[in-house]
What we know:
Keywords: Signal. With 192 residues, the chain is mainly beta. Helix content is 13%, strand content 55%.
Amino acid sequence: MKLVTRLASAVVLTLGLANASEFALDKAHTNVGFTVKHLMITNVNGSFKAYDANIDFDGVKKSFNSFSATVETQSIDTGIEKRDEHLRSEDFFFSEKFPKMTFEMKSYVADGDEGKMKGDLTIRGITKPVTLEVEDIAMIKDFDGNNRVGFTLKGKINRMDYDLKWNKALEFGGVAVSDEVKIVVDVQAKEK
């Protein structure tokens, strides 16, 4: 009888651990970044300073039940204010009319400490499907005993798909800004 009780307790404990938890972003340890080629020779890096996300993560399965994010386009920061003002203008994000861009996960396939997250990305009111690689998923208890999860999202989009079409042709071929934009988001979140 004791063996049956122990087995039942182990099953209940395991099922309890398998339940996913909601996590809140630790914005001091999260970065929403991007890279784009300038003049076809160098990368320009930038980030967004105002964002939020809803994360439902299963630490046992290392899998996401849901993930959604909102980014304020006005908060773009490339380190050059004149360039940032241009990126906020109608030529690019048109922040006055489209103050937010969003991502909504549709599916997730886990592969150990990595996976593929598919979802809908909306910029300037245009929604397109994207696939993000999820890397380096790790969980830990912090100094206060809180569960934390960390991971990196990586992907690529064509900015032309979202009507971010400003560009200038270069005299000897090529353009001022590449169509391809690389997305790199480093996330740390604490269990609610």
